[in-house]
Amino acid sequence: MSTTKNYPKSFSHIGLTVPDIKEALKFYSEVMGWYVIMEPSKVKKEKETAIGKMCIDVFGNDWTEFEIAHLATSDGIGIELFSFPNGIKEAPEFSPFNTGLFHFCLQDPNIEELIDKIVAYGGKQRMPIRAYYPNDKPFKMCYVEDPFGIVFEIYTHSYELTYSSGAYSK
Fold first, then answer.
1. Domain hosting residue 144, numbered range
2. Distance of CA 141 to the CA centre of its chain
3. Tens-digit pLDDT profile for residues 85-137
4. For an engineered disulfide with 142, which of 21, 26, 129, 158 has Cβ 3.0 to 4.6 Å away?
């Protein structure tokens, strides 16, 4: 019998590969309001630096350099942007049925305004805004894409409130 207690781990960051790091930094800082905590910089494949060694471990040897930038959300979650010079510059086909990362989700109580801004910056609204519990709770959601084809979701309320049985119940 184990005496180790399990506890929920916190989310640290997500890494996104984008075709143009400067355009992505502009989109995510201006549209999402995320803080730029590290401007774009180059990472080179070199065994003499800690970051070079780590990236060789992660990416193997089929690269020479890439650009990286870091942002943070209002609740301290990191957004790591990568731009590789030789990668495919289009998002893969949206395929939620296959194993892998399907989407990430942001929260904004003014979902309509955020979607309008995403579209104005070259992104897409993938569906109408929908209410999870139209007669019981004021919770809305919508799937969108950034200008680079990365699909994500927007909630108006927290994950816990959205799925809890007692929140906003009659």
1. 101-169
2. 16
3. 988 888 888 899 999 889 999 999 999 999 999 999 999 999 999 998 888 88
4. 129
